Amino acid sequence: MNPVFTPPLHLQRHQFVVDFVRKTKPKKVADLGCGECKLLKQLKFHRSIELLVGVDINGAKIKKHVHGLAPLSTDYLQPTNHQLHVELYQGSVTQRDARLRGFDLVTSMELIEHLTLPDVEHFSSVVFGYMSPASVIISTPNSEFNRLLPGLTGFRNYDHKFEWNRSQFRSWAVKVCLDHGYEVEFTGVGEPPQNQLESVGFCTQIGVFHRLKGSSHGNVLPGSEDEVFSYTSVYSINYPSLHDNNTLCKVLMSEVLYWAHQMTNSWMAEKTGRPNGDLPHRESEQGELEEWLSESQKQRACTGGLACSVDYFGRGEEQECGKLPQQQRSATFNRFVLVPLDGLWSCCPKIRELSGSVENLKQLLMDQPQVNLSQDGSSLLVKCEEQDPEQVDCDLEDDKGTRAVPVSCPAEPEEDWEADI
Ligand code: SAM
Q1: 3-state class of 361 per DSSP?
Q2: Is the pLDDT of residue 147 over 90?
Q3: What is the overall mean pLDDT for the chain?
Q4: How many Cβ atoms sit within 10 Å of the Cβ of residue 212?
Q5: What phi and psi values does residue 358 have, to the nearest 5 degrees?
Q6: For residue 56, how far is its CA from the centre of ligand 1 (angstroms)?
Q7: Which of 39, 57, 62, 89 to mutate to test the pocket of ligand 1 (most atoms within 8 A of CB)?
Q8: Could you tell me if the CB of 362 is within 6 A of ligand 1?
Q9: What is the DSSP string of 13-74?
Q10: Is the pLDDT confidence value at 283 over 90?
Q11: pLDDT-derived band at 266, boundaries 50, 70, 90
Q12: Cα(48)–Cα(23) distance, rounded to whole angstroms?
């Protein structure tokens, strides 16, 4: 059959659900007879939804289309506060499964006409009596419209067990409401041409059901015999979210390390007068360094208009490095800049947003193996990046326990390694 509608009817059906979701903002949504997962793929972008479940009797079909529900690389690179868990089950809507209970919205688009009439009865009691969601959207073909579909003889699909007219659909829906404590509104998508809406109706008829307030249907206590698990999970994924502590820490760490280095470089540039912020290679006595240190400790470096103090120290401040590994503590040439956490917190809005308070920031960083905090936990230790291996060798060779000051060796001409090959 050639498409008669623009946009195609299946897209109009899905758009109907999307509009409903936009309006009602459900958190837990299940699509029964999800087939190729097309509706689920649209729904996963809706921020209100935290749990998105698909069920279909055809497990192979779900598996074939599941890739469209996997997180995108941007979901990992820029996780948001949105929490989303997607779960797909192979199973029949005529059977109960406790994991489908307590949803805000259950949809079943173009499914019931694929069931035998006895199975429609099972479907009604499973969906309305057992799952008992707050809202249900059910769509099915309106047989009265069939005469307007060019070239159609019989049902619209070979697998349809029936196609109801509007009155048959209404009778079933009203009975369901009476049996299970719901109310229903009727609507549809796919309008007939020229004022025939009243006489023919929509091509797809839709019932939107709402559970009546105070209805106690479907209240099954956990652990009772009704707590059955008849569906098989075929796909399950947690989208990366800042609500997940691991994800939060990863994003926070990358922000902290970026800003700590920015602030360090900025301070160094100011201190040294060099744009790249190299540490001064000081060929000086201990006293001179101490004088320089005490001056620098007073210094306030300004980053982004917000002040933060940064300190520089060498071996003289070893005792400050509470969290430093032994090999770093004993090295005379390791040099660090102290970046106060409150400076980081006030400089970077993202760090503020992610951590909430300086105290939280401190707690989150304390558990991170890749950062070193000062002993009182108030500052981050940023290792100076200009380490010169030649200088290191020089320090070790010369150090007879008398020198506490990192010294620069006279610069040697760079070797051309490639020339040796
Ligand atoms: N809902 C989708 C849509 O609107 O694009 C797919 C509709 S498709 C016409 C009907 C789907 O219902 C098929 O994917 C089929 O496998 C599924 N189905 C049929 N009987 C079912 C049952 N007893 N339990 C669960 N799914 C069933």
Answers
A1: helix
A2: yes
A3: 80
A4: 12
A5: -60, -35
A6: 6
A7: 57
A8: no
A9: HHHHHHHHHHHH--SEEEEET-TT-HHHHHHTT-TT-SEEEEEES-HHHHHHHGGGGSPPHH
A10: no
A11: confident
A12: 10
| Pocket mutation for ligand 1, best pick of 97, 106, 114, 131 (most atoms within 8 Å of C-beta) | 114
Q: Average pLDDT for residues 296-306, to the nearest whole number?
A: 38
Judge whether 335 and 314 are in contact, CB under 8 Å. yes
Highest mean pLDDT among 12-16, 303-307, 361-365: 12-16
| Beta strand 306-309 pairing with 232-238 | unpaired
Ligand 1 atom closest to Cα of 14? 4
pLDDT of residue 103: 98
Q: What angle do CA 303, 306, 310 make, to 5 degrees?
A: 60
- Which domains are assigned to the chain? 9-238 (3.40.50.150), 245-408 (no CATH)
Q: Residue 125 in 3-state DSSP?
A: helix
User: HEC string of 389-402?
Assistant: HHHHHHHHHHCCCC
Residue 228 to residue 249: CA distance in whole angstroms = 38
Measured from the Cα of 93, ligand 1's closest atom is: 24
Residue nearest to atom 7 of ligand 1 (CA): 110
Residue 371 has pLDDT above 70, yes or no: yes
Ligand 1 centroid distance, CA of 248 (Å): 38
Look-up of token digits 């049902």: 155
| Tens of pLDDT, residues 51-91 | 999 999 999 999 999 999 999 988 888 898 899 999 999 99
Using DSSP's 3-state secondary structure scheme, residue 311 falls into strand
Instruction: Report the pLDDT value the prediction gives residue 337, as an integer from 0 to 100.
Output: 82
Grade residue 113 by pLDDT with cuts at 50, 70 and 90: very high
Whether residue 57 has its Cβ less than 6 Å from ligand 1 = yes
Whose Cα sits closest to atom 18 in ligand 1? 33
